[in-house]
Design a protein that fits this description.
The chain has 317 residues and is mainly α. The protein has helices at residues 3-8, 12-22, 32-44, 56-68, 83-97, 104-124, 138-164, 170-179, 181-196, 198-203, 219-251, 255-259, 264-285, 300-303, and strands spanning 205-208, 214-218, 290-294, 310-314. The chain has two domains: 12-69, no CATH class; 79-202 and 218-287, no CATH class. It is built from 14 helices and four strands. It is globular, with a radius of gyration of 22 Å.
Length: 317
């Protein structure tokens, strides 16, 4: 949580460029041993994160560390839950989730897969300053199970209503297929993040001063970290659902789609993949990973422990 890292995240544009770099999927090819071997030189180097990176090898090593090592624990993030794995794994799940399923079973299946993966991603990449051990507490497991169950049911709700009440009117079908899923799935994505990271709301997270010294554990900072992450998930999923739906509605009125209606489905799938791929770095960049909170917003005990006006915390992802 040093000044160098905060400077790199000073604007949305800087954060976006950094995330585009970190999300390079080729870094997934690096072995765990290779990543572990890169940690020692960085820790020994005085140039680490506190001075400008002058060497390309150090810069590449640092990128590998940011994409594969959890900043709170120093442990390697499981391969499938690393930031650069999110897009290639979640994209087919999003496409499958948004298919016009002919029954409830496939709809439940794809919703379950998507929300299970995102719940795992949220859990692995959360703030762990108050739970640095590798053991997953029972409460966290229950939060994961409850979150996946609720968001899966919430995600299929529009389709359930259509099948339960046999809605055949084209206008009503369009409402439940193209409009209602946008806020429903955005809310589901936000709820997933909040539920999975509920421990941060209850226990709080560490806050530090500008020099990186821990001042205390704050529930207010934990709530802010979770809220910002939930907003970013809602923006990611809501936009991914809305744009292809609007594009599909527009294309349906065009002559070439009327002559070749079979072309609409692949166009929507491609649009979904493109929008999701573009929105992943955008949503990750909405808020800085090193969050800032005013001292007056924190608990009295923390306010009395420092004279600095602003404190910092790791938001998680």
């Amino acid at each position: 949580m040093d000044a160098k890292c905060r400077r790199e995240e000073r604007s949305f544009f800087h954060r976006l460029l950094q995330w585009v770099d970190i999300l390079d999927p080729t870094t997934l090819l690096a072995s765990d041993k290779e990543i572990e071997n890169t940690q020692a030189p960085l820790q020994d180097s005085q140039r680490n994160l506190k001075e400008p990176v002058k060497d390309e090898q150090i810069k590449e090593t640092r990128r590998l560390m940011l994409s594969a090592v959890h900043p709170d624990t120093g442990h390697l993030i499981p391969l499938v839950f690393r930031p650069q794995a999110f897009m290639p794994i979640a994209t087919p799940l999003v496409i499958g989730m948004l298919l016009p399923h002919r029954g409830m079973k496939p709809a439940l299946f794809w919703q379950f897969l998507f929300h299970s993966y995102t719940a795992g991603f949220n859990s692995v990449n959360r703030n762990k300053t108050t739970s640095r051990d590798e053991k997953v507490p029972l409460k966290q497991v229950l939060l994961l199970v409850g979150s996946v169950t609720y968001t899966t049911c919430l995600g299929v709700f529009p389709q359930f209503v259509m099948y339960r009440y046999g809605l055949k009117n084209p206008g009503i079908q369009s409402l439940f297929r193209n409009i209602i899923p946008v806020p429903v799935l955005a809310i589901a994505g936000a709820f997933n993040a909040v539920a999975v990271r509920g421990v941060e709301l209850e226990k709080g997270i560490e806050v530090t001063d500008r020099n990186g010294n821990v001042v205390g554990v704050s529930e207010a900072a934990g709530a802010k970290a979770v809220k910002d992450t939930a907003i970013s998930r809602a923006v990611l999923i809501g936009t991914t659902v809305a744009v292809p739906n609007m594009l599909g509605s527009y294309l349906q009125r065009m002559n070439f789609i009327k002559r070749a209606p079979f072309a609409l489905a692949p166009i929507r799938h491609i649009a979904t993949a493109l929008v999701f791929g573009l929105m992943v770095p955008v949503s990750f960049s909405l808020f800085p990973r090193i969050g800032k909170i005013s001292r007056s917003s924190l608990e009295p005990l923390i306010q009395s422990a420092t004279t600095q006006d602003e404190l910092y915390y790791h938001r998680g992802l």
